Amino acid sequence: MKTSRSWWMGTRDYLITPATSRQRAHVKRTPRWILLFVSLAAIFLVSAYYLYQPRTTVSAAPCSVFDQGGCTTTYDGDRVVPAKVFTDEETSAHVVIREILNTPPPLSRSPKVAFMFLTPSSLPFEMLWERFFQGHEDKFTVYIHSSRDKPIHSSRYFVGREIRSEKVEWGRISMVDAERRLLAHALLDPDNHQFVLLSESCVPLRTFNYVYHHLMFTNVSYIDSYVDPGPHGSGRYSNRMMPEVRYSDFRKGAQWFSMKRQHAIIVMADSLYYKKFKLYCRPNMDGKNCYSDEHYLQTFFTMIDPEGIAKWSVTHVDWSEGKWHPRSYRASDITYELLKNLTTIDEAIHVTSEGKVHTLSIFLSLSFLSMVLVIDILTTMNRK
């Protein structure tokens, strides 16, 4: 007998037969205990999935303390869990920092670069720096922090440029205090827009115009900052820095920097994070040797403005010898080929406790111990 097919909205296709041929088919029913067992098993599996699925922490890109919910977000199933709640002191500090970052630097007819020298006594390369500065007197200022002896100057650009100085001990917070002291004096001049920290052994490897234009046309500060997961990096962290500074925030880097004016003002305004490093990042702290000049600014700016810093320094430091101090170039090392090679380096290498991390771009060089040949060679190079 023929059958006819009809469609019911929202259901499957049903086969409909005339009433004369309808017969109730014998259906074998499934036992109830099997249905109950399958239902309970399904409920158990679904519950286990939501209860025991792994939490995922997302920190692929650096973020600032102004991000909502903290810098690291934890996902508990479909629920977003804020990673950090700021204390009242942190909130107050971040308000000040945000206002400074949003305030443009003062207009200046002749913006300058402040060259800040951190030295124990006299500067052995003053005559080299004089050749570097000559003819650009309206574009730079010099500041000298001499922690041990009063410098004897051989260049007119350095005479009378000493600031009030105090004793500096290697690895102690006094090193950071000297940096802040230099920044404070340099900030008194509203025409200073960029601030470069240098040691007595620094020499310029580029012309003044190259350095000046590179700094003036950048919108970032050059602060060496990276994660060293080993004992001489993150291993120096102290839980006493909590809650303001977490283990995941802790960074390391060389102390030499170039800093834009807004960032220099922020360093002056900070007391909250500075105090944490003063108290808990020092030699023999909890059996660890933490050096604040290698961690304070590096961690601080990674927390407050990670997109506002280039995470490498404007100076070249050679740590390839694996010692506490970088390699120093002696008279026998200084050749035209060496200095020419240094000017062509396009990457800085971070030597960590567990390997090397590559970054970019330098234009100054550190740690020359002798003036022999350096002035003549660099002068020749810069003329070419």
From TrEMBL:
Topological relation to the membrane, as annotated: Single-pass type II membrane protein
The keyword Membrane appears for this protein: yes
Protein name: Uncharacterized protein
Gene Ontology molecular function, alphabetical: glycosyltransferase activity
Keyword Transmembrane: yes
Residues in coiled coil: none
Regions that span the bilayer: 33-52, 360-379
Compartments where found: Membrane
InterPro entries, A to Z: BC10-like, Glyco_trans_14
Keywords: Glycoprotein, Glycosyltransferase, Membrane, Transferase, Transmembrane, Transmembrane helix
Chief location: membrane
GO cellular component: membrane
